[in-house]
Amino acid sequence: ADETWFKRVTVKVPADTPMPVTLDATARAALPGVRTAVARARTEVDAQPELYIRLVTQPDATVEPNGVIVTETVVKNTGTAVASDVKVSLPLAGTTLQQASAGGSEIDGAVVWSLGSVLPGASASILTATLRAPDPAPDPAQMVQITARADGKTPGRRDISEESFAVTVSVTSK
Question: Do residues 135 and 66 touch, judged by C-beta distance below 8 A?
């Protein structure tokens, strides 16, 4: 009589393995004096990081000239591999940087945070920047559009990036 046997095999691929990688497997079952059965399988593993970025501001609609806008940015790796060399940038968009958390600093008109590696499923801590709105506001209002961008590398050193939704804050004189 024919019999069916199942055996689950788990293969762990080191996080620094360049992707994609092809795995080949061979299984052999032998019944003494009867027969030998061989099965082969091939699969491609393509674990990749995937960056998600969320940006919120306070206030989220209107600020007076020279008023304070506080941004909060969260970056998460929702993928299946480590994202390395992750940097977050927040263009100043006509505002002036007052303060940044977690080592953020102004570089070429943007607040930049260097996060290093972000593991799969992990989030960077909340990155905050305190910005000063332009003063005086142009006639009669100026819209400041704020975005954030996360850039990094895959285990195979391929570039990845993700940009947040834009938040528009109106700078209005009373």
Answer: yes
Tell me which residue of 69, 98, 54, 67 sits closest to 168, measured CA to CA.
69
Instruction: Quick: pLDDT tens for 43-96.
Output: 887 778 999 999 999 988 889 999 999 999 999 999 988 999 999 999 998 899
For residue 78, give both structure tokens.
Answer: 């929702």
Spell out the residues 6+ positions from residue 11 whose beta carbon is closer than 8 angstroms to its own: 23, 25
How many CA atoms are closer than 13 Å to the CA of 30, on its beta-carbon side?
3
Q: Is 90 helix (H, G, I), strand (E, B) or coil?
A: strand
What's the CA gap between 153 and 148, in Å, rounded? 17
**Predicted local confidence at residue 22, as pLDDT:** 86
The two tokens of residue 118 are 């972000």
Buried b (16+ CB within 10 A) or exposed e, 45-59: eebbbebebebebee
CB 62 within 8 A of CB 169: yes
Check: CB of residue 81 under 8 Å from CB of residue 119.
no
Report the alpha-carbon distance of residue 59 to residue 15 in Å, rounded: 41
Residue 106 contacts residue 113 (beta carbons within 8 Å): no
In the block, tokens 């391929």 appear at 158
